[in-house]
Amino acid sequence: MIAAGTARGEALAALRRAFAEAGLDEPALDARILLTEAAGLSQHDLLARPEAPLSAQAATRLSGFAARRLAREPVWRILGQAEFWGLPFRLSAETLVPRPDTETLVETALALAPRPDPAILDLGTGTGCVLIALLHERPNARGVGIDRAEGACRTARDNARANGVGARAAFLAGDWAAALSPGARFDLVVSNPPYIPRGDIAGLAEEVRAHDPARALDGGADGLDAYRAILARGGDLLAADGVLALEVGAEQADAVARIGERQGLVPARIAHDLAGVARVVTFTAESAA
Ligand SMILES: C[S@@+](CC[C@H](N)C(=O)[O-])C[C@H]1O[C@@H](n2cnc3c(N)ncnc32)[C@H](O)[C@@H]1O
After folding, report:
1. One domain, residues 140 and 228
2. Considering only CA atoms, which of 174, 216, 176, 213 is closest in space to residue 196?
């Protein structure tokens, strides 16, 4: 699709056009990211010398990237890595691409942590992005990330090492908190569990439906299965002054707060994301009320 020797600027314009014609949401951004990655350029290189020709290797790589994007593979999957909380996270087939909305979970957990060096539990850790961001911000904290998918745990372990927090993070494969020793208690329990109602999955954008793992999306018939499972044990996992923070889907906050209340937890705060959507529900243990 892109021939060797094509000027960088021309290749960029050709990609942008092809992506726009295919109806992609952000054709210009996607084109720029894929071109700089394929040719090993910075944004500055691209702007400074748009007339420079692409090497044969860069053109072949770029053509491959473009074909994948036109087949609706997300840019971050093509690159194999995404940014979250300003940190790089490697992706694998068993991990969700971290979403900007989830930074609200990190911000809320940081604001509510009962001590500067909290013991943290991250349920459904995926790439490890939430736990790793928290450990990055709290250099004396330690944490455990759990995921049902062993491949996600391996990726999260690599990400923790690459982001300099590997010595303070452990990753376990298991069903929510079942893999923990009885009596384990945490100052912060965080989770961004799967919360899409099963019947809505077929209607998601192909980038999500076909490329994010089903296990990371499927929240059961009403989207709330994971909250029921996590909150059933939530109180047992919290230290006396501990805080449990859960990311929720749009319009799920009240239902999740009620599930927690029925389990004897005390709803503490609902935090909103940048779009104003109620995105994080927090609880304390009843004994802390
Ligand atoms: C929405 S993704 C969130 C991943 C990551 N924390 C993030 O915010 O990008 C939910 C994660 O929960 C994991 N998961 C689903 N069911 C689980 C279960 N029963 N026990 C543990 N993890 C589970 C999935 O494999 C997936 O990695």
Report:
1. yes
2. 216
